[in-house]
Design a protein that fits this description.
This protein is α/β, with parallel strands linked by helices. Strands 1, 2, 3, 4, 5, 6, 7, 8, 9 and 10 form a ten-stranded mixed beta sheet that branches. The radius of gyration is 24 Å and the shape is globular. The chain has twelve helices and ten strands. Helix 1 packs antiparallel against helix 2 (about 35-55) and helix 10 packs across helix 12. The two termini are about 40 Å apart. The longest helix has 28 residues, at about 1-30.
Length: about 375
Amino acid sequence: MKKNWLALILAGAMAFSMTACGGSSGTAATAGGGDTAAKEESAAAADQGDQAVGEGIEKPSSPLRYSLGTSSSGGNFYLVGGGIATILNNSLPDYFVITSEETGGSTANLTMIQNGEMEVGIAMTSSLAEAKEGTAEWTGGPMDKVRGMVALYPSYMTMYALSSSGIKNISDFNGKIVGLGSKGAAMDSVLRTAFDKMGVKPASIYNDGHGATASAVADGQVDAAVLFSFPPFAAISELEATQELTFIGLTPEEQKQLTDMYPFYTAATMPAGSYKGATEDVPTVTEWNMLVCSSEVPEDYIYLMTKTLLENNPQLMEIHKSLEYCTAENILNYNVPLHAGTVRYLQEVGVNVPDELIPPEYQK
């Protein structure tokens, strides 16, 4: 639906442009020999339009084919990534053909960027922390090619269980089967460590995609599940259509434990009404979902993509309401160095970039 909406806008703009050029051509043709002049005028106008969009950046000989990593279909990454690719393709057709790719999510996207198999992807700040340090098993060492591009939206740590389970707080996870998403993903490894330090002892951890985990909760195979998402998450909403859910909040002490252990977490409150079963505010933590890229993509092109996305926020919000958070100021929530093209744009609009976010390749 979003792609169709954006395509209609583009088609309308093209139709308007063609109509306007057609009128000019007709007038010039009556003067004799004016048809050629009209075509030259039209071509010059088109070149001026491209220059306005590209800010004087030289166009490649043919559009660059880039891949944008998302997640499995049905998740927010998949939806948002597809919408971002559409906006960039429609806004910058002479520069890019960006393909939104279904992937295993944050860690898969970062791995492919580091290996040169992908230019752009979506990742959470927990995965970015592990990528920067290079100590997690999945990283294979520090990922020095990963750069920050645009901040997308924060996700709430969302813990839920069937109301019939009697689970009401995180200590009730003791002796239970708890779903922590895909095996090896950052949330899985981070929360296993966090649970251990907080004295939470599940009987076992269930690892699968969040949609499959929600189904396992419905079937009684899993007692409680955890994910990070901006509500509503489709799989949870679908589960609530047939089951009554309880959403588990954190105490202030538990929030502090998590934020002290992991700087990429921030104490927050998931608003009442986010889900049918969330009848009151749910104290929790958040982390950011970020659009990242390879340091090997030229500065001009990341600058151009960053500028296009940040200056088309109304179109982003048509993709998902969470993208109201996609602003220049929120880029400062990164925990890895930014791309030189993003730094250039932020400096241009007056955002002061701290030294720790400026990459070594950035030249003023």
